[in-house]
Amino acid sequence: MTSSEINAYDGSLGDLVHRLTQSFIAEHGEPPTWIVAAPGRVNLIGEHVDYNDGFVMPMAIERYVAMAASERKRDDRGIASVRSVNLDVFAEIDLTKIPTPPETPSWMSYVEGVFAGFMQKLGPESTQKIPPLNILLESNVPVGGGLSSSAALEVATATLLEAVTGVELGKAEKALICQKAEHDFAKMPCGIMDQFSSVFGQANAFMLLDCRSQEIRQLPFSSDGISVLITNSNVKHELVGGEYAQRRKGCDSALTKIGASSWRDVTMGQVDAAEATLTATERQLARHVVSEIERTERAAEAIEANRWEALGDLMYQGHASLRDDFKVSCKELDLLVDIAKAIGREGGVYGSRMTGGGFGGCTVTLVDSDKVVEVSQQILKAYKEQSGVEAQLFASRPAIGAHVISRSPS
Ligand code: GLA
Description:
By secondary structure, the chain is of the alpha+beta class. The protein has helices spanning about 15-30, 105-120, 125-130, 150-165, 170-185, 195-200, 240-260, 270-275, 280-305, 310-325, 330-345, 370-385, and strands at about 35-45, 55, 60-70, 80-85, 90-95, 135-140, 205-210, 215-220, 225-235, 350-355, 360-370, 390-395, 405. It has twelve helices and 13 strands. Alpha-D-galactopyranose binds near residues 191 and 193.
């Protein structure tokens, strides 16, 4: 299946880059000197455990933020002008000083936060090392879909700054600068999964990321017989920031009460033993974290043994835990998972679950490749009938992480 066979977002990176180049020429009268791209991600399993020292298993998706830039010729103000084609908005960054966090975050906060981190890394000469720039960006990562459009924007910005200055960051260092931008400038206390996925993504592999050691084991996934289908519920309940921070706090206080220093060392027996000291909510959070870390380890074993049905079962279990214990699902995501489950193995589905932070956004579903079109049509129809909302669907192979697409000789 190509995405356009169903109903979804216009897919190819080549098309995105071509469009962006044309827009850049139209705006600035010349082709860009640098073009970079960074992907969004989908998480197969391991949800809300990246900030709890757990394992996660994301893959970068074939949807990118692309950024084109060149030096501003007649600039006497030392600025980087940044325009987003999607949002049709424009902003400027003053390069003569390190940006400081905004009162109220906006789309530019992600970009500014990365400039700040990169400038700090460059040290006192940073203001000379980053020339005045015209930057144009376009994204085909669905925004607000739980597919890390913001991490893609951050990582694209860092990749552009590497290309422009010739200063290459370590890969993990780059992801961590981007995570810090999200914490400080976008005020979202995220874990490391999204930025690591966008930086370290590899074609034909799921990524088993150990969020305690930050080590990555790539799990080869080249089977053409199985497809990863991403379904956007097209609902977004505006709870995300606050609810997310609350879950984090709840996990931290539960861990303290259990008397452990890392969730990785906690067993279900310890959770049960601490029952009397935990609030009902903390008990549920703890149950999810401990069981989800274990499920993710088992999922890695299942993939290595090509046991797709076992992986599918773990996905359904993970969804139930996010819905009932961690309480980050919503009725539309539950509906999408129920529809996939009802189609079942005979219909071509192995498993399905919500993906990302929750409260709307997308589900991820494993499907027999030769049934993808049929399954997609069934999901779209049933979801529309039962929720009144039109979903969007696309399949993606694991994609390569952030990279420079072109750099014209100067
Ligand atoms: C958001 C965060 C990630 C992760 C997921 C939930 O995407 O940015 O760090 O915590 O939610 O797994």
